Amino acid sequence: MCKLAGSVIAYFTSAKFLLYLGHALSTWGDRMWHFAVSVFLVELYGNSLLLTAVYGLVVAGSVLLLGALIGDWVDKNSRLKVAQTSLVVQNSSVILCGIILMIIFSFKTQLLTLYHGWLLTLCYILVITIANIANLASTATAITIQRDWIVVVAGEDRSKLADMNATIRRIDQLTNILAPMAVGQIMTFGSPMIGCGFISGWNLMSMCVEYLLLWKVYQKTPTLAHKSAKVEASELKQLNVKKESDMKPTEGVQLIIEKDVTGFEPQQEKEVGCATRIAEPFITFRDGWVAYYNQPVFLAGMGLAFLYMTVLGFDCITTGYAYTQGLSGSVLSLLMGASAVTGIMGTVAFTWLRRKCGLIRTGLISGVAQFACLILCAISVFMPGSPMDLTVSPFADINARLFENEPLPTIASPEPEMIFATGMPNLLNGSIAPANSDPEMSPESVPLISVSLLFTGVIAARVGLWSFDLTVTQLLQENVIESERGIINGVQNSMNYLLDLLHFIMVILAPNPEAFGLLVLISVSFVAMGHIMYFRFAQKSLGKQLFVCHTPDPKAAPDSSPPGTVLHSHICCQTSTLECV
């Protein structure tokens, strides 16, 4: 009994559990804020979607442009400094945003009369700007914790790394559902102002606890204090260090030294001119994308990014479409719960498949499973009940507003159950009222075959989706060298946001429910292209492994090779005792 109690205590005080706990607190706060800020902006701007659309565009554009710079900053600084700085900036920005929103909600009438409303406009700009800073800090936190710290905490055990990645995703799945529901209840039975105060208070408390947890994890994992950085031969000459003058790396070999060059930074800064400093961010941006392109897992990363170009997910677009087809908010909430369950099943499938088939083949199997399920979505477009009408121009709604001077869409105050179910009002036609609300055609009379097939495919596909996501995540963790983890994952985030931004632009260009079927077919095509890219990556990787073999050490433990050294291991190239590197 004492031994069991000791094991339990040891687990709850381990670096791994403390990392999980910190991530859960951080993710819970993030999900509450991302849900609430969209609703706040809709409420503030006269029930219009304009501020929400501007906020989404600013966030996506910022990560797209600054992802490489954020990653480079992560690489160039110590792990603890990066984690603590991004944590403080993120939570402080959310707290400040909450306070400003509370002031706006309290004095909106007075602000409208001051300076002809320009002061209120300035407050809107300030809220969006600070919220964007919070999102950029959150991106830095995700890169350093989920792409770097977790690799170091797992050590050289790849199976442990896979289990930790899967657990992190399960936490994400649960908080995606529970956090918006919790803050939504507070906002409904209280008020938006109370919601702002609660989120600000939560982030203040969470920041203090997370700061302590990060320090504990850092203390329990001494290897986190050692961070190596790639130093090119030209950079060594600029440093002009006698100690390193006789170290001349051979061509094609990277020189890895400890990240302890702070003593030489002032001397280097003096030698750098003003023009060089101005050009440095642009050079970093270029070098980051070039380095990403040259990675052995480039095609795998691109394949993952292409999965973001889809309307087949539980975001405001798909759930809004379902609402126009007669599904109630309560049904949608149940469907979102089912999607969370299948997402968790995907994380379980990932760990099992990886043990049985290897990491690269897990990605292949997951991709096939996801695409097979999305075929149901493509079929749903042509089934009874589908509103798709190819005779109607996808741009008819935009043309009407541009050339017939129709007013921009506004939304009525959303019903609470709709907010809880979807996290956002309907963005398809500017109203949350179902498209089939004609008294002569009630939702019950509309065939639900099409929408049923659509959501069956979307929910089932999440098993393959999350398993594939974890596969690519671990490939990036294992194959990107330590000194480039930040910048490569920063560029990967930029690619994800780019494709996500394109999917929203696609919906803006074709917002009518009649065009949604066309968007479904385009989405399935992009998913197929993404998996084709991964297939090409797997073909190259497994093909190389057929020729690079060695006799395994019988004393070596499985999955013990350090991440970042080889592409993948434990895939047998023959039936003999040879094993591929």
UniProtKB/TrEMBL annotation:
It is found in: Basolateral cell membrane; Membrane. It is a multi-pass membrane protein. It holds the Pfam family FPN1. This is Solute carrier family 40 member. Belongs to the ferroportin (FP) (TC 2.A.100) family. SLC40A subfamily. It comes from the Eukaryota. CDD domains: MFS_SLC40A1_like. May be involved in iron transport and iron homeostasis. GO terms for molecular function: iron ion transmembrane transporter activity; metal ion binding; peptide hormone binding. It comes from Corvus moneduloides (New Caledonian crow). Its main location: membrane. Keywords: Cell membrane, Ion transport, Iron, Membrane, Metal-binding, Transmembrane, Transmembrane helix, Transport. GO terms for cellular component: basolateral plasma membrane. The chain crosses the membrane at residues 48-70, 82-105, 117-137, 297-323, 329-352, 364-383, 446-465, 486-509, 515-535.
